[in-house]
Amino acid sequence: MRVWTDYSLQWETGSADLMNQSDCELMVVFVDAKGEHHATGMVHPKLEEALRNLNDRGTFRGQAGEVAVVPTLGLQREQYILFVGWEKANPAVTNMRATAGSIGGKFHEMNIQSAIIIVPKLSANAQLASAFTEGLILSFYRRFSYASYERAFTILAKLTFIVPTEEAISNWNTGVEHGLSISNGVCYARELTNVPSNRLTPVRLAHEAERLSEQYGFKCTIYDEKLAKQHQMGGLLAVGQGSANYPRMIVLSYQGAPSSDEILGIVGKGVTFDTGGISLKKAAGMEEMISDMGGAAAVFGTMKAVGELQPQLNIVMVVPAAENMPSGSAYKPGDVITTYSGQTVEVLNTDAEGRIVLADGLTTALKHGATKLIDVATLTGAVMHALGDVTTGAFTNEDAFLQKLIHASEQAGEYVWQLPLYPEYDRLIKSDVADVKNHGGTWAGAIAGALFIRHFAEQKPWIHLDIGGTAWMWESRGFEGKGGTGVMVRTLMTFIENESQSTA
Ligand code: BES
Ligand code: MN
Ligand code: ZN
Hints:
The protein is α/β, with parallel strands linked by helices.
């Protein structure tokens, strides 16, 4: 299987004297909303005139993310200047990510191989360097094509950053390194999401975990169908029993704080394809269901970044991986199954399979010592009715825990919005014949799903992130291409780094 190979950006950072040695094709210059640029003394007066001209005509107003490319016609060493709108407005990191995304889009379009970036004076810090790198790398990612012909595809080979002072150099480099680790994690998650289900089965996903464990020294435990049966993982097995591709319970452990008893459990829904099972989905658009392991992709991408950045925190990642198929051996509406926790579930709709595999995923995380839980899942279409493809829905049994995660999401530039779990909703999962039922009816579908999962968190602090609307894009948007988005890698990793700092 082809997987994302790290984007190994070549770059150097220096102060003004490095400029004269550069032989880049293009120079990037930041411009504020007044039309003033941030590269004093580095732009030829004639080209400054061109900038004023564009501004007067209203073609380029220096609005955030706006770009204008001007050929230098021999007036400067570089063939082009790229003017980009930049206001250090709040939040500056989000703005910088988006700005770098538009720059990257232009690089791609113009097939730029080398560029020199003049970093604005007040922006030469590690946070903004990381955000810049994230936006740039994320804008480069394209879904792999399996076409038999070679695609002409070249991407940026070399970047030179010019920062205002000598002291800023090492901070900027640290930030770029950090941004590369984060964005490679996101691109890895996108790639896992984009691989079709005939190429990414539960068994293949387990191989990926083994590969990560070898690369980063994680402890890896895989429950194959026999081990899962021995452990009575009835939820995972029920969902997987209709498919010729057997299920796997995948566990990766990372010990970044050996002296602490706290272990963060991150659990990702790994349904490699969701046909709906016997409660079959309609045909139109069903191909999107290759992304029903988007939650798994998010936690895999996070673990990759964890391996790179080595935060001081204990983490156990769990992915219940299964394929939801209709067949002679498939589970059926009306079935009552016993999950790994011992709790029973009345199956009313085989298409509400995510919550069933997650039930066993949460139990697995708890048995591996998790003291707090975050699950990420393409759980419902209903969350898309509420929040569209813009915002991830969040649920919790402990508000203070979720507040920290929402704070991290704001730093990371991903939208997360809390939905309620008022006690009046409890009847949505009440069953006459089992502890819970897996389908609550027409309304409040995202909430019913969350309540079901909460049942298996066993009173431990728990957050559920429903990425049913945000894991997959039908059209590109900003630095997000069509297909898998890798959503929640940035948020989870930022949360983990914040926690790491607060315990250090
Ligand atoms: N994987 C789907 C949810 C989904 C649908 C995510 C479309 C992204 C796009 C999930 O397994 C599912 O089928 N959910 C059902 C639940 C219902 C039967 C209670 C849904 O949301 O319709
Ligand atoms: Mn489903
Ligand atoms: Zn599903």
